[in-house]
Amino acid sequence: xxxxxxxxxxxxxxxxxxxxxxxxxxxxxxxxxxxxxxxxxxxxxxxxxxxxxxxxxxxxxxxxxxxxxxxxxxxxxxxxxxxxxxxxxxxxxxxxxxxxxxxxxxxxxxxxxxxxxxxxxxxxxxxxxxxxxxxxxxxxxxxxxxxxxxxxxxxxxxxxxxxxxxxxxxxxxxxxxxxxxxxxxxxxxxxxxxxxxxxxxxxxxxxxxxxxxxxxxxxxxxxxxxxxxxxxxxxxxxxxxxxxxxxxxxxxxxxxxxxxxxxxxxxxxxxxxxxxxxxxxxxxxxxxxxxxxxxxxxxxx
Length: 301
Known about the structure:
Blueprint: E1 6-10, H1 15-26, E2 30-34, H2 48-59, E3 63-67, H3 74-88, E4 93-96, H4 111-139, E5 142-147, H5 150-153, H6 160-180, E6 185-193, H7 207-216, H8 225-232, E7 243-247, E8 250-253, H9 271-282, H10 292-295
Parallel strand pairs: 1-2, 1-4, 2-3, 4-5, 5-6, 6-7
Antiparallel strand pairs: 7-8
Helix pairs in contact: 1-2, 1-8, 3-4, 4-6
Pfam families: adh_short (PF00106)
InterPro entries: KR_dom (IPR057326), Peroxisomal_Beta-Oxidation (IPR051687), Sc_DH/Rdtase_CS (IPR020904), SDR_fam (IPR002347)
Protein name: SDR family oxidoreductase
């Protein structure tokens, strides 16, 4: 499905990114395996993971090269995209998968825990997408796949930084899809359920959280790769601005915010009237305070 396409996957040294890179290579893509080899919290560098994945692609008969630059600054993202152009002369698709975690409860969160997570996830997705955009515009084609999360779409404990970044990515993807549709460029999001190094750091402080982790351990990153490969392919030419989730053998299409209920007062509202009339009418449609595990409460199939 990706024969002769050039596909860039960030954070491809392990987990979900690795499986997407491997499957893209198996489907004929020339793959740029980007990974700085950092720890889960974003420290350190190691070229080994990227080289290992690239060699796996080559050993299976595919074509791959590596990039060790960070997505967290514009210059690094630019060099990642330049690697594709310098090596293969084109770029057809990107997967913004690179990420780190620095979980803590919001009232304890520091700037050192907030900034790097936003830099890698949200800024990284922007920087790589922005570097690829002129190339896609010039060739009148291109697909962007961004990793969001139910932590942002629904909610989760002790992940304000990660949740804010992941919901921001949804807005970024939608804007890219709107602004670049006339150039044949598509942009979609995937919220993956998969046991990976990143998910393994989820705080477990209740039986409910432990139950969620137990379910996640059944789901492998390889289950996410087929949807990403499809979205990168020409078969998905009519699919853009959507939010999907993959949970083991299930694929979900997520809703996007729309008005669900309204109240009207021809004279306008006073605070007292809002308290006595508007909120009682609207409250029947309030969303409960839930985490992802409350919504996805059944066993994966």
